[in-house]
Amino acid sequence: MADDDKTYQASPGSDPRTAPMAVRGPSAPGAVTPPSGGPVRTVPVAVPGPRPPGAPKPPGGPVAGAPKPAGPPATPPARPVPPVQAKAPPPSNTPPPARPPAAPPPQAKAPAAPASPRNDVLSPLPEKALGEFKELETLAKASSLDLDPELEKAVGFTHFDTSASEDNLITVLTTRKDMHQLASQTLVRVKSREDKRSYLGVVVRGPFSEPDAIAANSTMAVGVVVQGKKMSYTFDYHGRADIEILGEEVGGALSAPKLRPRPKSPVFVLDEQESARVLGLKGSMCIGMVAGHERMEARLDPRDKSILPRHTGIIGTTGGGKSTTVATLIHHAQAAGIATIVFDVEGEYTHVDQPTDHAAMLAALARRGQKAEGVKDLHIHHLTGRDSRNPRHKNLHRFSLNFSSLSPYAISEILGMSEAQQERFHKAYDVTKLLLEDFKIFPRNEEEHQQMLDVDELSTGYPRMTLQHILDVVNTYLYTLSDEGKSESKSRSKSPSRRRGAAEEDPESEEGADSEGGDAPPRGPQLKSEFRGNPGRVLGRVMAQSSKNEISWKALMGKLQNLRRLKIFDVDTAPGVDHGAMLEPGRVSVIDLSDTDSPQLNNLVIADILRGLQETQEARYQAANAQGKSITPVLIVLEEAHEFLSASRISQMPVLFEQVAKIAKRGRKRWLGLVFVTQLPQHLPNEVLGLLNNFIIHKITDSSVISRMQKTAGSIDESLWNRVSRLAPGQALVSFSNFTRPLMVAVDPAPVKRLLVD
Ligand SMILES: Nc1ncnc2c1ncn2[C@@H]1O[C@H](COP(=O)(O)OP(=O)(O)OP(=O)(O)O)[C@@H](O)[C@H]1O
Ligand SMILES: [Mg+2]
């Protein structure tokens, strides 16, 4: 066959019933060859108008060889039939644009003889041609009887395997006409009819266009493309796509495939409804639209224990859309009755109870048919002595931290104590505990005694211990190591302590002012807590556990004073955070950390509030379980998570990390979901990334970060990762534990107002 014919060759797999009808006649260059399996005949091609002689007619038009109907036919043909070209002209270099020829359906009737005077110019259909039409009709009918009606809906067929075939991947060939149906990420069903098995799969590569009967890299194929300006001629081609097998359909469920679909198994595209079902997209929370589908929404069930409580990472470079996604998530979580707590390092979520006024967001909302609206129940919490970005909000809560809730191990980590300082700190801590009992501060009764035994100092502090208590004890140690202290202790048996002690080491010490002006300076360590009522007792306890190395004690004192200077612990006028209130259904609590400008301080706050939330939720969970009730789900969002959980920080602060890991592990059962947001996932150690089961991955440009994430979120295939560096703002690769496979999603714009970050 001449090369020219290729343009009109029916692609493999095309439906013979829709292929061009063959009409006996003189074979000529530019003639149409019917599909394989059909009668091998050629059709002279009609060339309309200014087409150069010999140029084949563009496909899709009517069948050549049939006369034009004269006037309205008694039984009109499915398509008009053009006049017959008497003689096929010589071949030309300017063939028509490549499109497969569409032909009238087999039922097309031969046109009737002219009935209208308007058509007098045309000669009536010759008897011979009429006879051929009849014959064709019979042939078409016969071949359509042979065709399995099921195959009519097939969009392609599985190809034979080669030595390059990979497990779980299968190549599907399709016609040029159908290849658009095998768009990337399309879900398909492969019916391996030969062995009566059915598989579900997804297009992961392609669809590629391959020329029929010639290699794409052949000189001819390359030539016609290179000469695209001069030549309209091209080879006919078919589509090829690689399909990843998701599983074999057995009894309505998907099971791991043991075999592969046989060659030439028909492939069918699932409709959107079935695709959504197969992908596991169900639930009241919609986070956006699945790319490549008209109306498929990426949905999840906020009340499904196996989704949000299994923790989520929102990852991507600056401007990728992370915060918008968080804002959208907050809005949906609030609507779903989830208690949402956001650690807001920049204060950007302090206005989420107002509708967005961001022009681009309003436009995006309008496109999605959604409206701007704020969340209903917003509360803003900020540290005492620090400002909020929404200082006039009606639900503004100032809070201080309770020293008693911080693990001594976490404190020593946060303050970066040396080993010598740590040792002294823990010694002072133990002496303080004894003094709390001596001074009947804690425990006061049998119940509290039991509570004391239960304290886990790796995760929490000692009940009712304040920073001032421990400062008093450290002060006393310093006093005992000072010259005055040493002589004092020698004469202690003779007289009570008299000298002012190491409190003088504290440049900010408020008691310095108190003590000045007196004729006789007070003796013994200057104490400020309840311990001041009996300094002798404190001195006694300290001396019973004596210690050396004044320098380490001084350094420790310096660090604890730094902590005190933050003025965030045990402030009488600012209560601690009300964790119970934060866990109320549908409440959004934003912890505004915008004014702290100290990652160390942020870490203190985050660690303390996380622990409080976890304990409160744990108690609620136990109570709800005992009563057979359900518990309010909680979502905790941590912006700039790398600041809190970076690898270097975790190596410095293993106890803090252990606390987070514990919350993450327990949270799974207690309806407590964590959301870590970061543009620097490479700073998060594997231990942290390993806590995450869900990912919303916005644009990432750094290939080393992509490959790191590839290892972390292993279920995401290569074809999706390839797109991550080119994602537009708001687009994300989303992998949730309820999704059968990860999806490309256009995340919904945020209807709430978000403040800009400098
Ligand atoms: N889902 C979305 N729909 C429409 N526009 C979006 C969406 N997400 C992001 N954008 C656009 O991209 C901009 C940047 O988004 P966003 O601030 O959420 O990024 P980010 O990843 O949080 O950046 P940064 O790392 O700087 O905090 C938005 O102001 C908005 O214009
Ligand atoms: Mg952001």
Automatic annotation (TrEMBL):
Q: Where is the composition biased (Acidic residues)?
A: 504-517
Q: Which residues form a coiled coil?
A: none
Q: Where is the composition biased (Pro residues)?
A: 47-61, 69-108
Specify whether Phosphoprotein is a keyword of the entry.
no
User: Which UniProt keywords are present, listed alphabetically?
Assistant: ATP-binding, Helicase, Hydrolase, Nucleotide-binding
Domain spans labelled Helicase HerA central = 286-611
* Molecular function as annotated in GO: helicase activity
- List, as start-end ranges, the regions of compositional bias called Low complexity: 109-119
Per the record, the domain of life is Bacteria
> A Pfam family for this UniProt protein?
DUF87
Residues annotated as region Disordered?
1-124, 484-535
Q: What is this protein called?
A: Bipolar DNA helicase
Native organism is: Melittangium boletus DSM 14713
